[in-house]
């Protein structure tokens, strides 16, 4: 039995009001998260290079130990991201974004669309992407509690992120359309962004 089996609706802590409905639900892809959140290629390259240098300048056994420790550490982080994929469910309704996650400590974060000041879509290839949200005020949830569902280095004012999802441009469009019904927003021109037209939210 999973701790989420008691959810009235998957990904949501309670039944939706009559005037609220689900537009989209999805989960992050652990392989894409490993490349973008963990930067696994850089980490592997660093471990290999450092181990080779150690083996040539000190001893082969020391280099092999460092290689083993580094590989084990990376393996632990990758295993963690697999669990993140299994326990995370993003939900977009006509009134809010709900982020349900938690490997050790479970939490459910409700983000009203009326509080979203900006959203940035970052394309990650193969139609995958992440959408970083900027909210009014300072979110009460801590950065390290939120990670990997937060933008890098946004520690003081964490920016929740819908990370490593498939069909990201399509989801960004749905987010834009849902939010534009609740507040006045206008997309930027393409010259003002590297990825997609947006101002406040992806168009």
From TrEMBL:
Residues covered by the YdbS-like PH domain: 86-168
Signal peptide location: none
Coiled coil: none
Keyword set, alphabetical order: Membrane, Transmembrane, Transmembrane helix
InterPro entries in the cross-refs: puhB_PGC, YdbS-like_PH
Segments traversing the membrane: 38-57, 63-83
UniProt cross-references to NCBIfam families, sorted A to Z: puhB_PGC
Protein name, as recorded: Photosynthetic complex putative assembly protein PuhB
């Amino acid at each position: 039995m999973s701790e989420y089996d008691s959810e009235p609706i998957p990904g949501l802590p309670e039944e939706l009001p009559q005037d609220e409905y689900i537009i989209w639900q999805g989960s992050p892809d652990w392989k894409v998260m490993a490349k973008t959140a963990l930067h696994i290629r850089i980490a592997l390259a660093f471990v290999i290079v450092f181990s080779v240098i150690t083996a040539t300048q000190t001893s082969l056994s020391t280099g092999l130990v460092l290689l083993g420790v580094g590989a084990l550490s990376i393996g632990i982080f990758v295993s963690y991201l697999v669990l993140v994929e299994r326990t995370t469910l993003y939900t977009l309704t006509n009134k809010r974004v709900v982020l349900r996650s938690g490997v050790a400590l479970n939490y459910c974060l409700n983000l009203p669309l009326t509080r979203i000041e900006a959203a940035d879509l970052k394309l990650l290839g193969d139609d995958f992407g992440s959408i970083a949200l900027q909210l009014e005020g300072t979110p009460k949830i801590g950065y390290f509690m939120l990670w990997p569902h937060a933008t890098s280095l946004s520690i003081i004012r964490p920016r929740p992120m819908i990370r490593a999802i498939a069909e990201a441009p399509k989801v960004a469009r749905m987010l834009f359309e849902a939010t534009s019904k609740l507040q006045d927003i206008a997309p930027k021109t393409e010259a003002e962004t590297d990825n997609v037209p947006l101002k406040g939210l992806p168009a």
